[in-house]
Every structure is written in structure tokens, then in C-alpha cells.
Design brief:
The structure is a single chain. By secondary structure, the protein is α/β, with parallel strands linked by helices. It has helices at 12-30, 34-46, 107-115, 133-152, 178-181, 187-205, 227-232, 269-276, 326-330, 345-355, and strands at residues 65-66, 69-70, 95-101, 123-129, 161-166, 210-216, 220-222, 238-248, 255-259, 265-266, 296-297, 312-314, 321-325, 360-370. Helix content is 31%, strand content 20%.
């Protein structure tokens, strides 16, 4: 074996180059990706400077005292004319507020949220959870997933901010099972409570920089990853996709689909006449044989293989997945917890928006999927 070459006889330049190369590799492996870095910078740029800032602005706690004195809260100017809601929300860096009334936590709902391709640093999530046993369980499960996503998850999955609120009133139903929720005799009380929850969530989270509000129910477990961009591309004041449900046929054992949300509809003369004969506190309900309205339901407008961008005008909308320009809510359109033209909650919202000159649009061939209990 030949003599071992002494380190002292090595070329000093070779050693220097080797050290520099090792440092470069070390830095490259530990540094965040350019996409993650850009997202992090965007969050820092949009961070609120004070706890009194709008809840949709992520707050980074800073030293509140200078020279031993508490800093006064800043005077902030918001130029509302600069807030846009356009067909190209990504290109215009428009902020999205996703609002979810959450009675039960479904892991599939959260997993689907993480798959949305809209830049997460432009998304704020907000939840309204009832104060009962099921609500407590949902809160714990939600917080666990938030911690995983916001603290240890990939930077691209992290949202600008997340807000959790608890209802200040008791839910009218003791059970949140699908069968109990859809009983006809429970609808007025249940949907009035849902309206209150939606309004509380909306009015406490809508910030001055919010461009779009996406109402997304906690049991919507499957949507296209481009849901926000797809709906916003139509540039409509209010737009709703068609909500379906997958199920296993009891006989063939095949996985099939069925229409789920019947609250998106076009009005009928029969429904109007029914309303004319009702008392001031009575409401019209859709999807029940006992109250035949003969409305044209978007749920049954779906055509296999047809254009997913086909639009239809609507008089009532469901709230399972509903994209609204923030300015519509700022104009005063909310979810009536009382009979409004004999309509309540999301259907009442569509009627109220129409009175404000804001039209609702449906996409019968664009589907999202509801959890099947």
C-alpha cells in the first residue's frame, strides 16, 4: 500500500474550496423554499400591528411598551375603494374569508381545506361552534388540526389567521344527526339558530380588506382543489355550486351519487301563492312532500358531461358552499333569523340580496360533496 498523503501537504486552496462547499450545502438544505419564503413574507407584510386590528389580519404580538410606557393604539386608514372582488382573485391578491358554522368536526373537511390551491396566506378561516358537549368535542378536534397545520405543517398549508368563536346561545336541537336536522317540524327553529350563528360569525370577522366570503359547511368533505378560483372566475355577486352526496347502494353495493341540497331554486307561481296564504310568521320550506312548491330545483338541473361553467339565475340559495362578494354583505345582506317574505336563513339571504340589487347565480354542473352519515 502506498504512503498516506499528509494533510499538511494538501493544497490549501483545495481545503478552502471544500469548506465553502460544505457550508453551501448545509445552508441549502436548511433554508426554506422560495415559495415558502414568499408566503412567510406575505404574512409578515399583512400582519396586524395591534390587537385592535381587524380579526382577519394575523396578529404578531410585539413589545407593547416603549421606555416603560404602553404604546397607544395606532390610527389606521383603510382605503375601501382599493378592495377588489374580480374574476382573477389570485392575480389581484384578493383576500378570502372562509366561514364555517361547525357543530361536528370531520377530518375530511379539514383535509379538503388543505388541498385548496388558492394561496393560503390570503385565506382567513373562522368558525362558530355551539356551546354543548358535541361543540366541545369539535373544538378540541379542530384545535388539534390547527396546531398541526399552523405550527408544524408546511408553510404553504398555513393560513393567514384562524378564528374560533363559541355561540352565546344554546342550540335548539339536542342532536345534530342528519335525520334529526332534516325533520320538517325542526326546520324553523334550527334554521333560525343557524341564521344567528352565521350573522354572528360574519359580523365579527368581516375585515376591511376582505374581498370574498366563502360559506363552507363543516360537512362538505370534497370539492375541486380550485374551488375558490373556479367560482370567482364567474365574477358574480353570489354564486353557488351543486351539492351532491356519495352513498353505497344497498342492493348493488355500488357507490352512487344523489342530489343533497334543495335550497338552491328558481321560484314558481305555486310557491308564491302558498306564501300569499300564509301568516306573517310562517315560512316556505323546500324538499318536503307536505309543502309542494313546484319550484325548479338546481339539484335536478345537473347534466352528465355538460359544461361545468353553465350558469342559471336563482331566487334561493343553499349555504353548503356559497361564494359571496364581501361588498354584498357590507351592503347589508345577512341571514334573516325571522320570516323574510316567508323565507329564512340562506334562502332569505338570497331574497334580501335581491332587494339590494344583487343577483344569485347557480352552477348546476359544478359539484361539491356532502358527508354521508
Amino acid at each position: 500500500m502506498g504512503p498516506v498523503r499528509s494533510l499538511r501537504r494538501s493544497n490549501p486552496l483545495t481545503i478552502v474550496v471544500g469548506v465553502v462547499l460544505c457550508i453551501f450545502i448545509f445552508v441549502f438544505l436548511l433554508s426554506p423554499s422560495s415559495a415558502d419564503s414568499a408566503a412567510s413574507k406575505a404574512r409578515s407584510a399583512n400582519a396586524a400591528s395591534n390587537p385592535l386590528s381587524p380579526p382577519t389580519s394575523p396578529f404578531r404580538k410585539q413589545n407593547e411598551k416603549a421606555n416603560g410606557k404602553r404604546k397607544p393604539p395606532p390610527v389606521v386608514h383603510y382605503k375601501m375603494n382599493n378592495v377588489t372582488s374580480t374574476a382573477d382573485p389570485v392575480g389581484n391578491r384578493e383576500t378570502i374569508l372562509i366561514l364555517t358554522p361547525l357543530a361536528r368536526f370531520y377530518q375530511e373537511y379539514w383535509d379538503n381545506l388543505l388541498k385548496l390551491t388558492y394561496p393560503h396566506e390570503l385565506i382567513t378561516l373562522a368558525f362558530m361552534i355551539p356551546k354543548n358537549r358535541e361543540g366541545n368535542a369539535a373544538t378540541l378536534a379542530l384545535q388539534e388540526q390547527i396546531t398541526k397545520t399552523q405550527k408544524t405543517g408546511p408553510e404553504k398549508h398555513r393560513f393567514a389567521s384562524i378564528i374560533i368563536e363559541r355561540q352565546d346561545f344554546e342550540p335548539p336541537l339536542s342532536s345534530q344527526s342528519e335525520a334529526e336536522r332534516h325533520k320538517m317540524e325542526n326546520q324553523k327553529a334550527r334554521r333560525a339558530a343557524m341564521s344567528k350563528a352565521r350573522n354572528s360569525l360574519l359580523f365579527t370577522t368581516l375585515g376591511p380588506s376582505t374581498s370574498w366570503v366563502l360559506w363552507l359547511d363543516s360537512d362538505i368533505i370534497e370539492t375541486p382543489a380550485t374551488l375558490i378560483q373556479d367560482l370567482a372566475a364567474h365574477n358574480k355577486d353570489i354564486i353557488v355550486p351543486n351539492c351532491f352526496q356519495r352513498y353505497t347502494d344497498s342492493k348493488s353495493k355500488d357507490v352512487k351519487e344523489r342530489a343533497y341540497d334543495f335550497n338552491s331554486w328558481q321560484d314558481s307561481d305555486a310557491a308564491r301563492k302558498l306564501g300569499e296564504g300564509m301568516g306573517p310568521d310562517d315560512i316556505l320550506l323546500e324538499g318536503y312532500a307536505e309543502m309542494a312548491t313546484y319550484r325548479t330545483l338546481m339539484a335536478y338541473m345537473y347534466e352528465e358531461g355538460a359544461d361545468i361553467n353553465t350558469e342559471v339565475p336563482l331566487d334561493g340559495v343553499g349555504g353548503t358552499a356559497l361564494l359571496v362578494k364581501a361588498e354584498v354583505h357590507r351592503d347589508g345582506a345577512m341571514f334573516p333569523p325571522f320570516p323574510f317574505y316567508h323565507l329564512i336563513e340562506t334562502e332569505g339571504f338570497a331574497r334580501m340580496a335581491k332587494r339590494l340589487g344583487r343577483a344569485a347565480t347557480g352552477l348546476p354542473n359544478y359539484k361539491v360533496y356532502h358527508y354521508n352519515e
